[in-house]
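Practice problem 4.
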């Protein structure tokens, strides 16, 4: 019986042979990499994976045994979940829990669907705002929206990072990053 909680966020961080973070894969995929000697486990997760012949600690971080050349994906896709993750699931206007996406300069008036013009917002602020701009309402944005940057975003996207990955990813809060 596999002794592993099938949580939605369960995955393993894959590092290149150089320890550079590459991507997140399923725990099962990471275990296959380790069992086929394509990777070594560098940090265990919780639990043990059992197969017909092997028992293996659940891998949390694995490192490829051979270097792979990977082109960088510099553009981070704009998705609803990614906006929530960037904004910490907080409303950009009142800092309450965010449930909706707001276009700061309204789309109905030509506002762009771009990282610089979308923020997470609570339903109340979004409804009140309607097709007005924050300036017209005398509202202020908590921070200026921008496209997310950095290795953590490249690898994780909107995924919540496992604390065990912190040694390999730069997981500083976006607010503390230099502009
Ligand atoms: Zn709000």
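Answer key:
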């Amino acid at each position: 019986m596999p002794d592993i909680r099938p949580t939605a966020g369960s995955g393993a961080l894959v590092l290149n042979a150089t320890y550079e973070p590459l991507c997140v894969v399923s725990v099962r995929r990471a275990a296959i990499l380790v069992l086929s000697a394509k990777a070594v486990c560098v940090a265990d997760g919780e639990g043990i994976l059992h197969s017909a012949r092997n028992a293996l600690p659940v891998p949390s971080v694995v490192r490829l045994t051979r270097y792979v050349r990977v082109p960088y994906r510099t553009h981070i896709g704009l998705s609803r979940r990614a906006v929530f993750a960037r904004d910490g699931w907080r409303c950009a206007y009142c800092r309450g829990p965010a449930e909706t996406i707001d276009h700061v300069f309204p789309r109905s008036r030509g506002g762009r669907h771009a990282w610089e013009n979308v923020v997470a917002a609570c339903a109340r602020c979004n409804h009140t705002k309607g097709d007005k701009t924050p300036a017209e309402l005398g509202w202020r944005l908590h921070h200026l929206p921008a496209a997310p940057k950095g290795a953590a975003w490249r690898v994780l996207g909107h995924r919540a990072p496992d604390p065990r990955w912190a040694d390999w990813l730069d997981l500083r809060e976006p607010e503390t990053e230099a502009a």
